[in-house]
Amino acid sequence: MKNYGIYYQNLNELINLSKRDPKEALKRACSEFESLLWYEILKGLDNTIIKSNFFPETLERKIFQDYLYQEIARSISGRPGSLGNYLYKNLIKSSYFKYKTTNADNK
User: Is there a domain that residue 3 lies in?
Assistant: First the structure.
């Protein structure tokens, strides 16, 4: 089961947001990337735990645990000083972003 808990279920919503407010779209994309990264880290850490038969691995438990990791990843990402915030600050300064936003205004 690969459900990454994307805030924007539809890529078109993010594309439309980028046309209206490119900085906000970039910020949310960076936050989503960080959230995805934290989710994969949590899933990887879960695989390192030795499992016992005391609590059986049921489908319901796996689904609940998956959603729990998604929510933890969402709450961690996007905070000041986080990886997503660092990416945003560096990408907003990039010449590519400046070129794309200035050319979008001229059209």
Answer: no
Instruction: Based on DSSP, count helices (H) and strands (E) in the chain, helices before strands.
Output: 5, 0
In angstroms, the CA 25 to CA 16 distance is 9
Residues whose CB falls within 8 Å of the CB of residue 81, separated by 6 or more in sequence, listed in order: none
Q: What is the pLDDT of residues 5-59, one digit of tens each?
A: 444 456 778 888 888 888 888 888 888 889 999 999 999 999 898 888 888 888 9
* 25: in domain: yes
Per-residue pLDDT tens digits for 77-103: 878 888 988 999 899 888 878 777 777
Type and span of the H or E element at 62: helix 59-76
pTM (2 d.p.): 0.74
Which residues constitute the domain of residue 71?
Answer: 11-106
Give domain status of residue 6, yes or no: no
